[in-house]
């Protein structure tokens, strides 16, 4: 027997839970399906278990998409302050960590519990643990088979996310379903992901575990990307840390990533230091700003030993320029296995920015990470999940 609903939401992650709750509270009969045994698994591991649930600096410029204006409407109609008000109404204590990033004081579990409570208020039927066997559309209704059951509804919401971290149940299911209904997909690629360096770039190996604040930039096809001032971390395979994760979303194969070491030093600082402290060494100078191992490795690479007073202004100028744009040429990334999000996804040029409904497929909606909207690191991806979910939840 086929059970009928007003809407079926596929995927009980951040976007699916919030969309189902919103529609349910408007009186819609909603079925929320997930193949995982439990809802909101990515929320639970997010922000180191404390969930960086939004960012107070959210704006469309913090997102990547082939259709850059698409996210504006939903983001302006459901803001970080709106989500924060919901968090506070559930008595969840929070704090701003840095750069506008809001985290739970206690646990990401509170966010999942809050979303489930909101779903319960809306009478949402939540079903976990069965894979979706197939979807078809006839006579204005979507029919979904899952486990031994079947359900139908005039509205179907794709909220199954992207393929990042497949071992957590992430899949490319959203794209297969989108293609089944004639929607286009922008080539998905790992984003917010550590970058790997070729074996002959030995700097990173010596420095594995060292972290320092840099300004990271990308040169090449990704030129024009913003510069990110945050920590970079050397790993045994290459580069990671927030600055690198941010720039990885813009990096394309063949591009150079540059890191500006000692970002607080004004132009001409090495020549000035030569005049002020001619007996100091470059290593001594760098170690005032950088971890010791890094200072040593950079000095070795620059080949500048001895007192500053004995080094030419030209050599110091060249060293300063190199320190300001130290080049790394990644040979790849750690891939979907380690990517925090997926860039690309269902092409938003085929979707209404007001309702998230496919323009040519009435009743089919796309929300969250499944769509080609990718946020920076720092709570922006959840804010997109909430905002797009809200837009669809108010429309179905
Ligand atoms: P999401 O991936 O959350 O949910 C999709 C759901 O669909 C899952 O429950 C999955 O099981 C289900 N599904 C998949 N295929 C299916 C199928 N075939 N049938 C049925 N169900 C299916 N962002 C942020 O803003 N702040 C943060 O702190 C973090 N931290 C973070 C840490 C880590 C380790 C990761 C991997 C990611 C983050 N993120 C983040 C990113 C954030 O988790 C992500 O952008 C959102 O979870 C996206 O929400 P969605 O609901 O779109 O997808």
UniProtKB/TrEMBL annotation:
Its cofactor is FAD. Transmembrane segments: none annotated. InterPro entries: BaiN-like, BaiN-like_dom_sf, FAD/NAD-bd_sf, RsdA/BaiN/AoA(So)-like_dom, RsdA/BaiN/AoA(So)_Rossmann. Keywords: FAD, Flavoprotein. This is NAD(FAD)-utilizing dehydrogenase. Residues 6-393 form the RsdA/BaiN/AoA(So)-like Rossmann fold-like domain. The keyword rRNA processing does not apply. Residues 189-341 form the RsdA/BaiN/AoA(So)-like insert domain. It comes from the Bacteria.
């Amino acid at each position: 027997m086929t059970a009928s609903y007003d809407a079926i939401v596929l995927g009980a992650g951040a976007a699916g839970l919030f969309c189902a709750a919103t529609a349910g509270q408007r009186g819609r009969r909603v079925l929320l399906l997930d193949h995982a045994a439990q809802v909101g698994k990515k929320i639970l591991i997010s922000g180191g278990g404390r969930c960086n649930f939004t960012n107070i600096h959210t704006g469309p410029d913090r997102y990547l998409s082939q259709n850059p204006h698409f996210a504006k409407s939903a983001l302006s109609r459901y803001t970080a302050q709106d989500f924060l008000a919901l968090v506070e109404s559930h008595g969840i204590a929070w704090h701003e960590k840095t750069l506008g990033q809001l985290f739970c004081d206690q646990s990401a579990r509170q966010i999942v519990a809050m979303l489930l409570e909101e779903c319960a208020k809306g009478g949402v039927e939540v079903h976990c643990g069965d894979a979706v066997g197939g979807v078809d559309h006839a006579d204005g209704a979507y029919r979904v088979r899952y486990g031994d059951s079947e359900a139908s509804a005039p509205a179907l919401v794709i909220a199954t996310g992207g393929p990042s971290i497949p071992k957590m149940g992430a899949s490319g299911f959203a794209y297969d379903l989108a293609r089944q209904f004639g929607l286009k997909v922008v080539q998905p690629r790992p984003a917010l992901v550590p970058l790997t360096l070729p074996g002959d770039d030995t700097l990173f190996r010596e420095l594995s575990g060292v972290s320092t604040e840099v300004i990271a930039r990308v040169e090449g096809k990704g030129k024009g990307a913003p510069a990110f001032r945050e920590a970079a971390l050397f790993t045994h395979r290459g580069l990671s840390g927030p600055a690198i994760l941010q720039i990885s979303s813009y990096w394309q194969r063949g591009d150079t990533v540059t890191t500006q070491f000692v970002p607080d030093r004004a132009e001409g600082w090495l020549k000035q230091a030569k005049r002020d402290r001619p007996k100091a060494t470059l290593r001594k100078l760098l170690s005032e700003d950088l971890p010791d191992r890094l200072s040593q490795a950079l000095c070795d690479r620059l080949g500048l030993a001895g007192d500053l007073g004995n080094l030419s202004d030209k050599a110091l100028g060249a060293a300063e320029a190199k320190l300001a744009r130290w080049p790394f040429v990644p040979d790849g990334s750690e891939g979907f296995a380690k990517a925090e999000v997926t860039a690309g996804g269902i092409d938003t040029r085929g979707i209404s920015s007001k309702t998230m409904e496919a323009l040519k497929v009435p009743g089919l909606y796309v929300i969250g990470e499944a769509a080609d909207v990718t946020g920076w690191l720092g709570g922006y991806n959840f804010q997109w999940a909430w905002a797009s979910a809200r837009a669809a939840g108010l429309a179905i």
